[in-house]
C-alpha cells in the first residue's frame, strides 16, 4: 500500500503534483475564471465581507499565514491568521461581515472545531478548507472547499499542505473575482500560473537527490535554523516544524529581517541555516535584503543552505549549498519552495533512525484541546 516507497511520507511527497492538479480540477473554467460552486456563500455576502480571519493549527496554520499575503494582495480585505487554540480565549472581534476560514486536513482537530463554533456563535460565516469528506469541521461550517490530496497517512503533513495552499489561492482569487479588484489583469495571469504549478512541483521532485545527500551529512547536528521573508517566512516555519516532528532536532524559523533583533546571536561556526529566497524579479528590495542577510550569517560562520529560483545568480556566491527551484510568481512560490524542506526533514529523520510515518508523541488527528 506504500506503492513501492519505504514510507507513506515519501509516497505522499511524490503524490504532490497530482494532489495539486486534482485540487484545481474543475475549478477553473474554459474562459480562465474560477467556478467554486461549493462555496455556498452568496456573491452578495462575499462582497460585504470586511475582514477575513483564518483559524488553523500546525501545518495548516502555516498555510493560513501564506494565504494572508495572497488574500490581502489580491482582494485588499484585511486578513488575520490565528492559532485555533488561542482564538476564542481572547474574545476576538467577529461579526456577520467577517469571513472565517478554518483550514484542517483531518476535519477533526478539536482546537479548530471549537474556534469555528465560537465564530459561528458570533454570527460569522465559516468556510472550511478540508481534506476529509464528511468530517466534523466541514459539516459544521457554512460551506466547504475540499482539497483533493487523497488520504494522508503519514503523521507529518505534506501533500495536504500543498493542496491547502492551492485552496487558499483559489479562495483569494475567487473573492477578488466576485468583488472586482484593480488587479483584474493580474488575476487572470495568476490563474494561468496556478494551473501550471503542478508541473513545477514535479520538476522540483526530480532534483531532490542532492538535498537527500546534504541531509545525511547533517544527521549529527543539534540545531538547524530556517529564514525567510514575505511568503518565505511561513515556509521557513513549516520547514522547522517538519524537522522538529520528524528528526527531533531543535529547529526554528525566523523572519530574516528579525535576525538583527536577536536571533543572529545564535549563529556560530558551521551552524546549518536554511534560507528561502524570494523571486529575484518580483520584489527586488526584498531579494536584495535577503542576499545581505545571507552574507551576514555566513560572515559569522553559518553553513548556508540556500533555496533559490533558477536563474537567481546573486545568491550563488554566498550559498554553501544551493537548492534550485523553478521560477514562480512570488505569492505562489511556497508551493515549490516547501518541497525540498519536506524531503530534507524526511531524509534527516531516516538518517537518525527515527520512525518517519509515526513520529514519537504525535497523532495524525488531534481530537483533544
Ligand atoms: C504537522 C502536522 C500538524 C497538523 C495539525 C493540524 O506535520 O501534521 O501540525 O497540521 O495538527 O491538523 P489538521 O490539518 O488535521 O487540522
UniProtKB/TrEMBL annotation:
Superkingdom classification of source: Bacteria
Keyword field contains Ubl conjugation: no
GO molecular function, one term: carbohydrate derivative binding
Main location (coarse class): cytoplasm
Subcellular location: Cytoplasm
Domain annotation SIS: ranges: 42-181, 214-359
Active site per database record: 364 (for fru-6p isomerization activity)
GO cellular component: cytosol
EC code(s) of this entry: 2.6.1.16
GO biological process, one term: carbohydrate metabolic process
Signal peptide interval: none
Keywords, sorted A to Z: Aminotransferase, Cytoplasm, Glutamine amidotransferase, Repeat, Transferase
Catalytic activity: D-fructose 6-phosphate + L-glutamine = D-glucosamine 6-phosphate + L-glutamate
Keyword Repeat: yes
Assembly notes: Homodimer.
Protein function: Catalyzes the first step in hexosamine metabolism, converting fructose-6P into glucosamine-6P using glutamine as a nitrogen source.
Name of the molecule in the record: Glutamine--fructose-6-phosphate aminotransferase [isomerizing]
Upper lineage: Bacteria, Bacillati, Actinomycetota, Actinomycetes, Kitasatosporales
Residues of the full protein shown: 247 to 615 of 615
Amino acid at each position: 500500500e506504500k506503492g513501492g516507497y519505504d514510507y507513506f511520507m515519501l509516497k505522499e511527497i511524490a503524490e504532490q503534483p497530482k494532489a495539486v492538479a486534482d485540487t484545481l480540477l474543475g475549478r477553473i473554467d474554459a474562459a480562465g475564471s474560477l467556478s467554486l460552486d461549493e462555496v455556498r456563500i452568496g456573491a452578495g455576502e462575499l462582497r460585504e465581507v470586511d475582514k477575513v480571519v483564518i483559524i488553523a493549527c500546525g501545518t495548516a496554520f502555516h498555510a493560513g499565514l501564506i494565504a494572508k499575503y495572497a488574500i490581502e494582495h489580491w482582494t485588499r480585505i484585511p486578513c488575520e491568521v490565528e492559532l485555533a487554540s488561542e482564538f476564542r480565549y481572547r474574545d476576538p472581534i467577529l461579526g456577520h461581515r467577517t469571513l472565517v476560514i478554518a483550514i484542517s486536513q483531518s476535519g477533526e482537530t478539536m482546537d479548530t472545531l471549537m474556534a469555528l463554533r465560537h465564530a459561528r456563535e458570533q454570527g460569522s460565516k465559516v468556510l472550511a478548507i478540508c481534506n476529509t469528506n464528511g468530517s466534523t469541521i466541514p459539516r459544521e461550517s457554512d460551506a466547504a472547499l475540499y482539497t483533493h490530496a487523497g488520504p494522508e497517512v503519514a503523521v507529518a503533513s505534506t501533500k495536504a499542505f500543498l493542496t491547502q495552499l492551492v485552496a487558499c489561492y483559489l479562495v483569494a482569487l475567487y473573492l477578488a473575482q466576485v468583488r472586482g479588484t484593480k488587479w483584474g489583469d493580474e488575476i487572470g495571469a495568476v490563474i494561468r500560473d496556478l494551473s501550471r504549478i503542478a508541473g513545477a512541483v514535479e520538476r522540483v521532485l526530480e532534483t531532490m537527490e542532492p538535498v537527500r545527500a546534504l541531509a545525511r551529512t547533517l544527521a549529527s547536528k543539534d540545531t538547524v535554523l530556517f529564514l525567510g521573508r514575505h511568503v518565505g517566512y511561513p515556509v521557513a516555519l513549516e520547514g522547522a516544524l517538519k524537522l522538529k516532528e520528524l528528526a527531533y532536532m531543535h529547529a526554528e524559523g525566523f523572519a530574516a529581517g528579525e535576525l538583527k533583533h536577536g536571533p543572529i546571536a545564535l549563529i556560530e561556526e558551521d551552524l546549518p541555516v536554511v534560507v528561502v529566497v524570494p523571486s529575484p524579479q518580483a520584489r527586488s528590495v526584498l531579494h536584495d535584503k535577503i542576499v545581505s542577510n545571507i552574507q551576514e550569517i555566513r560572515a559569522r560562520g553559518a553553513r548556508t543552505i540556500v533555496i533559490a529560483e533558477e536563474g537567481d545568480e546573486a545568491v550563488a556566491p554566498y550559498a554553501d549549498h544551493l537548492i534550485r527551484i523553478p521560477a514562480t510568481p512570488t505569492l505562489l512560490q511556497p508551493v515549490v519552495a516547501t518541497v525540498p524542506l519536506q524531503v530534507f526533514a524526511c531524509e534527516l529523520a531516516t538518517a537518525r533512525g527515527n520512525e518517519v510515518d509515526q513520529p514519537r508523541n504525535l497523532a495524525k488527528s488531534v481530537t483533544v484541546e
